[in-house]
Amino acid sequence: MGSFSFLKKERLLNRKDFVNLNRLGKRYHTAHFSIIFRKNGLGITRLGITASKKIGNSVKRNGIKRFIREFFRCHKTHFPHGYDIVVAAKKGAGNLDFWSVAEELGQFVQNKKSHGSL
């Protein structure tokens, strides 16, 4: 598949993982996203995405989740290995396009890598 794939082992799928990350992870807020991250000890970075009904109808929710997955898939080499990351979309995120999502999440990745806190 190559390095640009998004494999099943790179996804956060269990409710238990989301709850533990929500309780114990560090939080970072942007204008349209809340990002929670924590070391997982697995050596791979796993991504979880949440989008509540505050975002809009199912078309908007699925669209924003698709944009977040695509950003992670294309930029996962910039993320450090061994972290669980949950990206939760906030209320205004349903109206964003891919480039706005990429810019906002890209600033998060650059900020955290430059400070060494991720």
Explained architecture:
With 118 residues, the protein is of the alpha+beta class. It has one domain: Ribosomal Protein S5, domain 2, CATH 3.30.230.10. It has helices at residues 15-24, 58-75, 98-115; strands spanning 26-29, 33-39, 46-51, 83-89. The chain has a four-stranded mixed β-sheet, sandwiched between helices. The longest helix is centred in the middle third of the chain and has 18 residues, at 58-75. The radius of gyration is 13 Å and the shape is globular.
Topology overview:
Elements: H1 15-24, E1 26-29, E2 33-39, E3 46-51, H2 58-75, E4 83-89, H3 98-115
Parallel strand pairs: 3-4
Antiparallel strand pairs: 1-2, 2-4
Helix pairs in contact: 2-3
How many distinct helices?
3
Order of helices and strands: HEEEHEH
In CATH terms, what is the architecture?
A: 2-Layer Sandwich
Distance between the termini: 27 Å
The CATH topology assignment is: Ribosomal Protein S5, domain 2
Number of domains: 1
Query: What average pLDDT do the residues reach?
Result: 89
Write out key terms for the chains shown.
4 strands; Ribosomal Protein S5, domain 2; 118 residues; alpha+beta
